[in-house]
Design brief:
single chain, 4-stranded antiparallel β-sheet
Length: 176
């Protein structure tokens, strides 16, 4: 098991780092805006001749890289569902500042967001499929959410801020 260190970067996001078996230093900065930076780095013990690399990735690119590197098995089983029109499957990684951190998932259907499912909560190497509303979510957890793109966006807004971002009812017909 690789020892991953997590450091909160105030105003930026979270830095995860680890050292490879051959002594390489690797990290990922997950920005609050959603994009990520894949980095290699050195410290004073490495000397001045070490090459440092930083590569900025969008959310989609970061998900793609994770899958290419052997992402969670739940990602593999859900990839076929992404081909269904009108269905969006997305991942929400919980940060310390998020509204949902330390809270139970709750029932978004009771708040007006029907037709949305939290497929699983991934915690470390374990997936918790079909979690109930009383399942407590912690920073570092990843929620796998399925629904229409609009409803997934509303759920993510709720998880991050505790609001849906507007005052209109979630399932109201257009123009109301």
């Amino acid at each position: 098991m690789v020892d991953v260190r997590r450091v909160k970067l105030p105003g930026v996001g979270v830095l995860h780092t680890f050292i490879t078996d051959d002594g390489g230093k690797c990290g990922v900065i997950t920005h609050r805006s959603g994009h990520s930076d894949l980095i290699t780095f050195s410290d004073d013990a490495d000397g001045a001749d070490v090459t440092k690399v930083s590569l900025r990735l969008s959310e989609d690119e970061a998900h793609t890289l994770a899958e290419l590197l052997g992402g969670t098995r739940i990602t593999e089983s859900l990839s076929a569902l992404d081909q269904i029109p009108g269905l969006s499957i997305d991942w929400f990684t919980v940060d310390y500042d998020d509204h949902i951190a330390g809270q139970p998932l709750g029932d978004l259907g009771a708040k007006g967001v029907v037709g949305l499912t939290v497929v699983a909560v991934v915690r470390g190497d374990a997936a918790n499929p079909a979690p109930s509303g009383d399942f407590k979510v912690f920073p570092g957890d990843t929620l796998v959410v399925a629904g229409s793109p609009e409803k997934v966006a509303k759920a993510f807004s709720w998880y991050r801020t505790g609001t849906f971002g507007h005052r209109a009812p979630v399932d109201s017909p257009p123009g109301s």
